[in-house]
Design goal:
By secondary structure, the protein is mainly alpha-helical. It is built from 5 helices and 3 strands. The protein has a 3-stranded antiparallel sheet with strand order 1-3-2.
């Protein structure tokens, strides 16, 4: 990254960017990671923090994050049973990157606050040479 070399990605599962984005893609994973960023949490506490997520989807997201080595599940041999979820070292590293992405997003929103048109949001500028007929 940062050099002018042309890179052809034939397999997104072996491209570093594809793998990284694949781990947190989807609507909920980054929010689940946010909920676990301050330390271990039980399932119910995580669900309350991630408003709008169903129990089924939270279970699925936690399972996928565990499979990717991002989240650790700790089962305690207690009655009643207690389970806590936390970020692994790899999860912490990814969360730190997501924090940078979030900061960029906030800065971008601030910079875009005065814009009334949809230019820059995927639509070419009306005075762009690419749109000249």
């Amino acid at each position: 990254m940062g050099n002018s070399e042309v890179v052809t990605v034939t397999d997104p599962h072996t491209c570093g960017m594809g793998v990284a984005v694949g781990v947190f893609e989807g609507k909920w994973k980054s929010f689940v990671m946010w909920a676990l960023a301050d330390g271990p949490r039980r399932f119910g506490e995580t669900r309350r923090l991630v408003t709008g997520i169903s129990e089924k989807v939270l279970n699925q997201q936690l399972r996928e994050l565990r499979a990717d080595g991002i989240v650790h599940r700790e089962d305690y041999a207690e009655m009643p049973p207690r389970v806590e979820y936390s970020l692994t070292e790899q999860g912490r590293r990814l969360y730190d990157l997501l924090e940078l992405l979030s900061a960029w997003g906030r800065d971008h929103l601030t910079a875009r606050a005065g814009v009334v048109t949809d230019e820059g949001l995927g639509a070419p500028s009306s005075d762009s040479p690419d749109t000249a007929s």
